[in-house]
Design brief:
Layout (H helix, E strand, L loop, with lengths): L2 H5 L9 E6 L4 H12 L7 E4 L9 H4 L7 E4 L4 E3 L1 H11 L10 H30 L7 H19 L10 H16 L9 H13 L1 H5 L9
Parallel strand pairs: 1-2
Antiparallel strand pairs: 1-3, 3-4
Helix pairs in contact: 2-4, 2-7, 5-6, 5-7
């Protein structure tokens, strides 16, 4: 039995994906929506908005952490964390194209995806610092801490960028993190990392799902 079978022993007879709880602005929700598109699953999975700040939102019963994205299966089972959801969809669909099956390669790829996700995590924390704190309480020390994470991660990513013509969990994660940086602008990254700018342009041209999952223009910053 290979590693993927150990992790996800689905044979197509067990419950499939039914409902995704997310928003159209979450970089992590966008990752899953891109995966759904690439795997040809968008038409069979409903996407239902979730408000992480609303105490009455059923999201808090579906995921006790109250975080998105959250995937509900046909039997009511629930998966959360974008990487877990993407791996489930990849294996369940039988395509195995977003995350490799071999243990060593899987670990390497998921490590790179985690690094890319860390960029989005740090950017979110910077946005939340301004959103949830009184201006007099905003900590520049905290913001600098998050900026450091982003710059170090971008430095590391640009030494070994994924193939922009290949859509996998690393390229999806990096593209969504960069898309979030472009929208929220917690840091100015484009002038410092022209190689990564070129990579994003190439990925966007090669993968139509990136454009199809972009935040609607009517949603303000």
């Amino acid at each position: 039995m290979n590693s993927a079978q150990n992790l996800f022993p689905f044979d197509g007879k067990l419950p499939g994906p039914k409902l995704l709880r997310s928003t159209l602005t979450s970089p992590f929700g966008r990752k899953v929506r891109i995966a759904m598109d690439v795997l040809g699953l968008s038409g069979r999975i409903d996407v239902q908005p979730a408000d992480t700040r609303d105490q009455s939102d059923t999201l808090r019963q579906q995921n006790p952490l109250g975080k998105i994205p959250c995937l509900i299966l046909e039997d009511g089972s629930i998966l959360y964390d974008s990487r877990v959801i993407i791996e489930f969809l990849d294996r369940w669909s039988g395509q195995n194209r977003l995350i490799p099956e071999a243990v060593d390669e899987r670990a390497r790829i998921l490590t790179r995806a985690t690094l890319a996700d860390g960029i989005a995590d740090a950017a979110l924390l910077m946005v939340y610092e301004g959103r949830f704190r009184d201006p007099s309480q905003i900590s520049e020390i905290w913001l600098d801490h998050q900026r450091g994470k982003i710059s170090r991660a971008l430095d590391a990513m640009q030494t070994a960028l994924p193939d922009p013509r290949k859509t996998d969990v690393v390229s999806i994660s990096l593209a969504c993190a960069l898309g979030y940086l472009d929208w929220r602008q917690p840091v100015e990254w484009r002038q410092t990392y022209p190689v990564i700018v070129d990579w994003l342009d190439e990925f966007a041209a090669a993968e139509a799902a990136f454009g199809r999952t972009e935040r609607p223009a009517e949603i303000p910053a």
